[in-house]
Amino acid sequence: MTPASDTALDTLHTTATEIFTGAIKACNIAAAFDRRLHFEGNTLHRLLPDGGGPATIDLSAYKRIFVISLGKAAGPMLDTLLDRMKRRKGLSGICCWNQVPHSRNWRIRYFEGGHPLPNEDTFAAARATLALLRKARKDTLIFFLISGGGSAMFDLPLDPKITLEETQEFHQLLLASGAPINEINTLRKHFSAVKGGRLAMAAPDAAKVSLLLPDVPLRTLDALSSGPTSPDHSTIADVRELIAKYDLSAKLPASIRAFFERDDMPESPGNKGWRPSFFPKLARPEIAPARRVAAAVNMSEEDEAFRDSVFEILLSSHDLVESAKAMAEKAGYFAAVDNSCDDWDYADAARYLLNLFHSLRTTHKRLCLISVGEVTVTLNRKPGAGGRNQQFAMACALELENHPGERLTVLSAGSDGIDGNTQAAGAIADPTTVTRAHAFGFHLKESLAAFNACPMFTALGDAVVTGPTGHNLRDLRLLIAERD
User: Fold this and answer.
1) 29-314 architecture in CATH?
2) Per-residue pLDDT, 243
3) Which CATH architecture has domain 3-25+319-482?
4) Which of 128, 189, 284, 372 fits 196 for a cystine, CB–CB 3.0-4.6 Å?
């Protein structure tokens, strides 16, 4: 590499980072809230109801208002709602976030839930929420503010004999299984007292408004934080098929294995005789319309608790992609989008995107290939310091070594600012990564096998570090090329 080409790669690193951070910044929660909802006095106006429930909600008709905010965007979502909603009488709530908020509202109880594994506040927040929801009546309106990450930071086993340590082991086993998020969360829904619609069932008579920031595919929105307020159409039979599929039975803690093997294991709320998508496929993904449970033939009594629920999607991964695309085009790149490898194994996703990338760059001098979604990693040993984004970037680095002297860069990072068990959001790779890593004493194939990418990328200065973003709109991958 010549100094000039080193400089060119440095510029590409900077460009990729700017597109990533700029796309997250453009997905502003407060602005998204104002595009969907507007408070005027005691009236909540839904600006894009799309037939999904009432266009207005009269807050004065309710004696009490509860706010339950959970997930990696719990703090910003809660602050935005409280700022817009001027009413304070009868207001109380719970906030379960993975950060300590700088300021606290005295009407809200705050908990610092664990992620990627549950902690003591995970259980405490769930217990406090269930206790509050049991006080709800017909004169109660509940706002559920739900973002990704809630599956870990907000949980409580249905079986009270299952301990926190056993729950942590269960979550770790699921994360290491290589299963896609919707299958992982099918197991979590049936395990938990606060998932799979059970929060809604805890307050069956109350009116409910769920505001969502999904970190899951829009076709499986009921997997968001394991669907605490939406009916679950997966079954116990599905759970047992997944346990067999991923050979989990012998690995589960004894108490959890016994729970899943119980003849009287309770079903999650939701009529299992019909399985239409709770959130129909979005016809216009750039405008994710509100969805409401439609009346259905043979709706069970349990489903009645969901009938008048209102759901609003404030932001989604589509917004993240569109923001990244706009920034890339503004910088003079041809921007292509391909999300086909969502939920693929990281190595398969790397091969697919790199093949597409090399094909497209033959006809575009300045190219930015954008992909959103999450890849999976199957752990067969105790991992080092890393995450799925850094694992993906390391796999790309090994292939990019075959293109010496070319101006190519791959960035993969999580929009929440946290990748796996590290403080990095992800990493950047280029054709010099392998050579530079060897100079620091790192061998990529060994690091890849040990799931230990972070030390290497940190030493190279190629870890993407943003700190927690207060967002969680899935992972973003950028593959950028320039040629003369």
Assistant:
1) 3-Layer(aba) Sandwich (3.40)
2) 96
3) 3-Layer(aba) Sandwich (3.40)
4) 189
Q: Could you state, in order of their start, the residue ranges of all structural domains in the chain? A: 3-25+319-482, 29-314
Calpha distance 351→362 (Å, rounded) = 17
Return the closest-CA partner of residue 129 out of 193, 86, 72.
Answer: 193
**One-letter amino acid of 169:** E
Tens digit of each residue's pLDDT (9 = 90 or more) over 244-302: 999 999 999 999 999 999 998 888 887 555 444 333 333 223 333 333 333 332 344 55
Q: What is the pLDDT of residues 178-208, one digit of tens each?
A: 898 889 999 999 999 999 999 999 999 999 9
Residues 6+ apart with CB under 8 A from 334: 360, 364, 366, 367, 368
pLDDT for residue 311 is more than 50: yes
Contact 250, 233 (CB under 8 A): no
